[in-house]
Amino acid sequence: MDDYPLLNVFLTMLYLFLWVMWFFLLFKVITDLFRDHSLNGWAKAGWLVLVILLPYLGVLAYLVVRGRSMHERDEKLARDSEAAFRSYVRDAAAGQVGSGGSDHVKDLAKLAELKDKGALNAEEYERAKAKLLA
Length: 134
What we know:
Layout (H helix, E strand, L loop, with lengths): L5 H30 L5 H13 L1 H40 L6 H17 L4 H12 L1
Helix pairs in contact: 1-2, 1-3, 2-3, 4-5
């Protein structure tokens, strides 16, 4: 370690960071290229060849030409994912995910209401609840 100065360690870390960021950007461009439905197959193939054969120039050109639409596709994907997650949570909370979950929830609510009104005693309520959950 005596023959490797501290500045060289920092430069090596910087080069490694830039190398990792370059691959991240390259994969991001290729992923966006295949995710885009507005391009036809030949246009995708052309961009892919440009990005693979001339990587620095190809990625720079892609970001200049299609950077704004790339951002819009990312935003749309995030909105769609968030909406799907919210819909799933809403359905799960209502008991609709799975087989017949909402019917069980409604029936259990009716049983609890009948028990609260005094139409069912505790033993009848437990028996009916066990039958529903079985």
